[in-house]
Amino acid sequence: MTTLAFDIETVPDVDFGRRYLGLDSLSDEDVGQAMFALRRQRTGNDFLPLHQQRIVSIACAMRSRDGFRLWSLGGSEANEAELVTRFFDGIERYSPELVSWNGAGFDLPVLHYRALRHGIAAPRYWELGDSDREFRYNNYLGRFHWRHVDLMDVLSGYQFRGAARLDEVAVLLGLPGKLGLSGDRVWDEWRQGHIGAIRDYCETDALNTWLVFLHFERFRGRRTTLELEQEEALVAEVLKADGRAHLGEFLRAWGRE
């Protein structure tokens, strides 16, 4: 079966903010700051509601019978509609097992809103067994189903107080964790036009998610220690062959250059 670990990065949807707050004359930066200020006033923090966020990067780490692959959807100039379309088209084509870190609480709901916004159809993703009986008791939407594994949700025992950060669990397992950027810096990087740095950061998050998943597979008895080591060696081989700077940095931090 094809398994796809994924991650998204977002920025404020300033088009929404401009219309909703009536800020037609303000720049994107000022609209974003107004959205953050209103959120702080209402909640005490500036983490925007999921429907007010726009996707600027989607990274995928995919394992299939053909090998392992890590990439960002679309080119650096791709708009949001193309990114979201490509993500759901991949589900239509491969019906992969999805793996995420907090995907049920963040990534997928954001993808829902943005697909709705752009008029994107995703029948395979929403399949509940009406057209394919295999999806009746194992689909992408059931919290306790395995077609989407939200590692944060599962490992916390579905309890908020047990939830952990991806980078901390990655470091716990001897993996690199976050390198360079962090999620709270994406808006600043976006405003400076650094989409390449955002895409690289998103890829390393997808990569950490995949590697944590391999350890989880051993934990639940689906891989032996030898198989885990073989899969890690495959990932390292692919990253070396890729040759991009951020993946070389990842390898060095992982001790596998």
What percentage of residues falls in helices of 4 or more residues? 40-55%
User: What Rg is obtained from the alpha carbons, in whole angstroms?
Assistant: 19 Å
CATH architecture: 2-Layer Sandwich
Helices and strands: which structural class?
Answer: alpha/beta
**Topology as a string of helices (H) and strands (E):** EHHEEHEHEHHHHHH
Strand order of the biggest β-sheet? 3-2-1-4-5
- Tell me the number of strands: 5
CATH superfamily: Ribonuclease H-like superfamily/Ribonuclease H
Number of helices: 10
Shape: globular
CATH topology: Nucleotidyltransferase, domain 5
- Main pleated-sheet profile: 5 strands, mixed
Fraction in beta strands: 5-15%
Short characterization:
The protein is of the alpha/beta class and 257 residues long. It has 10 helices and 5 strands.
Structure description:
This protein is α/β, with parallel strands linked by helices. The chain has helices at residues 14-21, 28-43, 80-94, 103-118, 151-155, 166-172, 186-191, 195-219, 225-242, 245-254; strands at 3-12, 53-64, 67-72, 97-100, 148-150. Strands 3-2-1-4-5 form a five-stranded mixed beta sheet, sandwiched between helices. A hairpin with a 2-residue loop joins strand 2 (53-64) and strand 3. The two termini are 29 Å apart. The model has no long low-confidence stretch (mean pLDDT 96).
